[in-house]
Amino acid sequence: MEPAVLAFVLWIFGFLSVPAAGYPNGKVREACSSMMPSHGHSPQPSPEHTISVNETKFRPGNHIKVSLSGPVFEGFFIQARNAENLAGPAVGSFMLGEERISQLLTCGLVKNSAVSHTSKSKKTNVEAYWVAPTDVPEHVQFLATVVEKYKIFWVKIPGPIISQPNAPPLTTPTSITPESLPTSQPVFHLTTSFNASSCGITKFCIRNPPKCNPGAAYCFFLSFKQSNYSVLIEMSGPSEGYIAFALSHDQWMGDDDAYLCINEDHRININTAYLSGRTPPVLDSENGLEDLSWRVADGLLQCSFRRNLHLPAYKGRFNLDANYYIFLADGEASEGGLIHKHHRQPLITNGMYNVTDSPKDVGGSRSPLLLKLHASLMFVAWMTTVSIGVIVARFFKPVWPHSLFGKEIWFQVHRMLMLTTVLLTSIAFVLPFIYRGGWSEWAGFHPYLGCTVMALAIFQPLMAGFRPPPHSPRRQVFNWIHWSTGTTARILAVVTMFLGMDLPALNLPDPWDTYTMIGFVAWHVSIDILLEIHSYCLIRKVEVIDEDRIQILQSLTSAEAEGHTFKEIVLTIYICGNIAFLLTFLAAIHQL
Ligand code: HEM
Ligand SMILES: *[C@@H]1O[C@H](CO)[C@@H](O)[C@H](O)[C@H]1NC(C)=O
Ligand SMILES: *[C@@H]1O[C@H](CO)[C@@H](O)[C@H](O)[C@H]1NC(C)=O
Ligand SMILES: *[C@@H]1O[C@H](CO)[C@@H](O)[C@H](O)[C@H]1NC(C)=O
Ligand SMILES: *[C@@H]1O[C@H](CO)[C@@H](O)[C@H](O)[C@H]1NC(C)=O
Fold first, then answer.
1. What pTM does this model have?
2. Which positions ≥6 away from 435 have C-beta within 8 Å?
3. What's 533-577 look like in SS3?
């Protein structure tokens, strides 16, 4: 899970690309239990289409011909269910009548237990054959969903009921309408926010920020409470769209068991998904979760459900009594329950935990420590030490010309700051490699630019070590190369930092980070220009005095002394501003 649950990406029901029909190819497995096309619209009342069968009695193994007909329609979805439990799973399997317009789907554990369209071509009649299984209920009812157009559809149109011979008459009256059908997820309303008082005592909790109160507007909360063979899971967090958690064997994407609470028009759907790789998750049609309940209030999504420790019948559900990294993600969802990629890096626990073992109360981080260190050291090096070092070399030669331990002071300061820059860069450089154990493949241009900056940063002091003596004719060449290499490195470093700040593994708040960085560059450039103009004026002044020839020596020194004080004041102000920018960035990194 690289930048972790990167795959809580767009769960697209396919309709974004082809807005005319929900599932133009009819692969509607997500709709297995609700039979809803998820078009983001409400179903129509009073159906116009009818389902008919060629027999009303059946025995296990019998074939029944099922037809759906009515006004022209584009999509359909047919299932047979136990007439006494219409909210239950599909029963029996189908064989196709006409393969061109229909296809078989597998709902739940029963192969070929539903039929749907293959394309949105217009049709008025479809046929299929239902095969009664051996463990068939006594009464079976056919249900169909018909999509006339994208926005016009009917859900769970009740069809005929067929019965086994000698079956007692059906007890429940079956005059169902789509509205009166029990939904596939009987959900309950939570009345209060979750309670963290037993975290670490009877339940395992993850909270972000640490120790926050799950009722608070900024608190992400996840808890696991085991009782016998089942675990009650509560999750809440501030989100308009969805909140989710995933169990993972590692800190990267792929092979993860995810649980999502998705806000759809102020109703929450609780779903599971198996994240197989870096592809968008496909929500499971059936998930083995029980006791679903939820609440949307005060900008907070809350959901809770129960699941067994082991769910071997459901593919992709992990056993809860093992060690996992746990991810907490949130993001936007749009109409129809589409999930968009989380815009923040998900929270990852700092280690692997067994949630059924001794209860703990842990936190997590949205960014790995090594990457935080990487960014912090790079900020110190390329915002502060390098900038001050360059200003000193450019403007303070005449100000600090005196020797200290055999070298001029400006030179000592410059060399010290620049070597610090190289040292910090070298240390910071290896950290992401240690963290990733290799090359960061999904980090865009940042690593490439970063390597260039590193190379230039090494080259610069090596070259300076072999510089020609002053007054040598080659000294001018050195000066030029030294200046241009340094300037290139600094410009590239700024670009690298801009790109680094938006990497998912260390995403500083947007757009704050960009503006602050622009602010820093503006601050630096203005000071640079100010000092440049000042130097220019000072030279002009000296020239003018020179021509005047009278009080030459006296004025020169007083003008220079004035200039030096000015430069020192500007440098002090610059350093204060620079450190203020640096500290805001370090604080922002610390908070991730
Ligand atoms: C000029 C300064 C910088 C240099 C030279 C630099 C260099 C690099 C290099 C070479 C890598 C790739 C390492 C690898 O492939 O494993 C890297 C990764 C990274 N850098 Fe920087 N970096 C700089 C500044 C920053 C800043 C300021 C930030 C954040 C605010 C940052 C955030 C990151 C992150 C998050 C990664 C890891 C990406 C991932 O694997 O997900 N870097 N950096
Ligand atoms: C109903 O259709 C099935 C499958 O084609 C067939 O086996 C059965 O004999 C038909 N029943 C009647 C009464 O036609
Ligand atoms: C949380 O639960 C504990 C014990 O179950 C109870 O004493 C406390 O009042 C509850 N707190 C809230 C805010 O509901
Ligand atoms: C757990 O099991 C024990 C005995 O096996 C039983 O008494 C208790 O009610 C069960 N608890 C729950 C919450 O089901
Ligand atoms: C997790 O904890 C449970 C309960 O203590 C224990 O039975 C199980 O073996 C543990 N699993 C691992 C992988 O340590």
1. 0.55
2. 368, 370, 371, 374
3. HHHHHHHHHHHHHHHHCCCHHHHHHHHHHHHHHHHHHHHHHHHHH
- Which of the four pLDDT bands, split at 50, 70 and 90, describes residue 424? very high
CA of 53 to the centre of ligand 2 (A): 9
Sign of CA dihedral 175, 179, 182, 188: negative
How many angstroms does the Cα of residue 130 sit away from the middle of ligand 2?
A: 10
Read off the pLDDT of residues 335-344 as tens digits, 9 standing for 90 and up.
555 676 666 6
Closest by CA position to 235, among listed 358, 347, 336: 347
| Domain assignment of residue 10, yes or no | no
Is 486 part of any domain?
yes
Question: Within 13 Å of residue 237, how many CA atoms lie on the same side as its CB?
Answer: 26
Residues 467 and 552 grouped into a single domain:
yes
409-436 vs 446-465: helix axis angle to the nearest 10? Answer: 140
Ligand nearest the Cα of residue 63 is 2
Between strands 290-297 and 188-189, the pairing is parallel
Q: Residue 592 in contact with residue 366, Cβ under 8 Å?
A: yes
* Among 298, 296, 300, 271, CA closest to 286: 271
CB 382 within 8 A of CB 489: no
Q: What is the pLDDT of residues 458-489, one digit of tens each?
A: 999 999 888 888 888 888 889 999 999 999 99
Pocket of ligand 2 (CB under 6 A): 54-55, 63, 65, 129
Q: Which residues pair with 307 in a beta bridge?
A: 231
- Nearest ligand 5 atom to alpha carbon 358: 5
**CA-closest residue to ligand 1 atom 31:** 500
Domain that holds residue 138: 29-165
CA of 383 to the centre of ligand 1 (A): 15
Cα-to-centroid distance, 151 and ligand 1 (Å): 47
| CATH at residue 157 | 2.60.40.4060
In this structure, the answer to whether residues 136 and 192 fall within a common structural domain is no
